[in-house]
Each structure stands twice: as structure tokens, then as C-alpha cells.
Amino acid sequence: EADTIDATEIHPPGRFFVTGLSGVGECTITLTGGGVEKTVEVVNVAGTIVILEPPVQINFGQAVQFGAGIFTLDDPPVPMDPFQNSDAVWTSDAPNNASVDADGVVTGVSAGAANIQACWYNDLAEGYEICDEVAVLVVVAPPTVIDIVPDAAAAFTEVTVLGSGFVSAHQLYIDGVFPDNDNSVVITTVTDTEFKFIWPALDDDGVHEVFVGVPPDAISNGEPFVQTEGISAEPNEPANNLQATTPIGIDAGGSYIGGFGGGDDFDWIEVTVGVDGSYAPEVDWNSGQDLDLYFYDSTLTEICHSWYEQPENECGTLELTAGTYWVELNDYSGGVFNSTYRFDLYDMNE
Description:
This protein is an all-beta fold. About 0% of the residues lie in helices and about 50% in strands. The protein has strands at about 25-35, 35-45, 50, 55-60, 65, 65-70, 90, 100, 105-110, 110-120, 130-140, 145-150, 150-155, 160-165, 170-175, 185-190, 195-200, 205-210, 220-225, 250, 255-260, 265-275, 275-285, 290-295, 300-305, 320, 325-330, 340-345. The strands form eight sheets. The protein has a five-stranded mixed beta sheet with strand order 20-22-27-24-25, with no helix packed on it. The model is unreliable at about 230-245 (pLDDT under 50).
């Protein structure tokens, strides 16, 4: 509604006050007197933006929703129009420690400090921007390792570390070193109390240690683990790198944990499909290597070829009839690599 006042009641004459209320917007002020009219446009903007009750610290791997609001400069401040987190522009000056998304969700990436800033720009008043900033410390609680299951196994075995305080795949270390291309691990599950991964093919048999570490510097809580077979003991790799006569086989809908080792860069897997339908092949690994998947029928006629260094899966979902199929996995990275992978053929008919 329009406000109207009698200018003759203003003391001293010709002076009046405009009060910005708790709504962002614009209005027109018109002064009329002696047949003369004067009009001015007025924009009501927020006086300040406030990050609401932010935590002083968050845990490594934790995601915390931050909130913000806009207020008048009154004492005490008055909340203005309803404000969504996405109305602000959120930034972190140290995203490697704490990242923040467009909705104000802050995630602890690694131990350290970061300043989280929320800014609001009012497009009704050109160039008008207000910001608030808070400091956040990312802390890492030392995890506890209780047991390893199994405590001895061949390469490519799924291993479960039992304990508490597990929050990220980045906490896993083998022999005190974070796994890389020379010591590959496929992480399958991380919960607060279980850390599951596929044991890599290491260069030698014997005792190794599995650590759950505290990044970025400290390594803690190691448990011994015995590798009973080396990387040369893969039963599904024929010596001539041709079709295996005694390959590892899986039924459709199943999975196989395997790897490359020594000077070999081929793996063959025999797949048995019992029912006509839709199936999706997929390879999962943490090595960063250039893996190619070839899917063949029983006569070794290629059905699809998927370049798994690319984000897309070229094979997608396949329509297969009951019978025998062959999967060939090739490592085109060059050199000698110890790479662990998991192959799954998903049954899409359920």
C-alpha cells in the first residue's frame, strides 16, 4: 500500500525520512507541493549477510550444511526476505582442505584450515554486494584397526579391515604407502566400521602390512597380512596369451577379481549366460591405467570393445542369448604393471 503524509507537518519544512523495512525491493518516493511534483526511485537492500551458527571444526570426510541469511542494520538486526542457501555465492580459500558447493555444503577434504565465504549480490542496486566469512578447521580423528579378515590370502582376494573411524578411501595404505599404479587396490566398501578392498598383486610373497592412516602426514594402526601367492600365479592367464583352455569362469550376474602382473598384460574370462536377456559388462579398478575390454561370443567374434580410460562405457547394455561368451581385458599402459581389477557382468533382467 502507498504511504501518504502531509508535508506541512514535517519539521523542519522540506525534510522527511524513509525507512527500509524487512523486504528487499524498490519503490518510488513522490513529493508534491505547490503544483510541483518530484519523484525519486529508492532501492531497499540488505544491510548485512550472516553465515548462521557455523561449526568451528568439521571432521575429515564429513559433509556439513552451512546456512546464511540477510538482515537489516538495526540493533538488533531484523531478518529480511526469505533467503535460500543457493542465493549466496559460496567459496573456500583452501578447497584442498575444505570444499563448499553452491548450496553451502562444506566437506572436509584433508586436515587443515579454510575460510568459507558467502556473498550476496543485489541486482536491484548495481555493484551492491555483501559478504560474510568464517574460519573452519578440518580435523581427523585417528581410526582404530581391530582385525583383518582374512589374515593370509593370495593376490586379488577381497580383504575386510574391522575397526572404527574409517571415513575415506584415502586412509588406506599398503606397507605404509598409499596405493598407486605400482601397488593397485580396488576399494569396494568404506563404512565407519568396515574397510573392504581387493588385495593387490605385490612383487613378493610374504608379510605385508595394511594401514588405516591419518592424512596427510601420519600413518597409524598397521596390521600384518600375508600374501601366499605372487603375481605369477594367475590361473586364468595361458602362457601363449591366446584363448584360455582352463580359464576362470563366471555365471551371468556374477563377478571376478583378477589382475595383471609380471610381463603379462592380458586376462581372459569365460562367461556363461543361462537365460536370454539384457546384461551389462563393467570393469572397476583404481590403477589409472589404460584398460580395454573386448566382449566376444563363443566363436571369438567381437560383440563390443570398450575403452575404459574414457568416462563412457562403449558396451553399455547387451542383449545376449544363453551360451558361452569370452571377455578379454588388455592393459595398454606399457611396461610391467601390477594392476588389480574387478569384472562384473550385471544381470539387467531383474
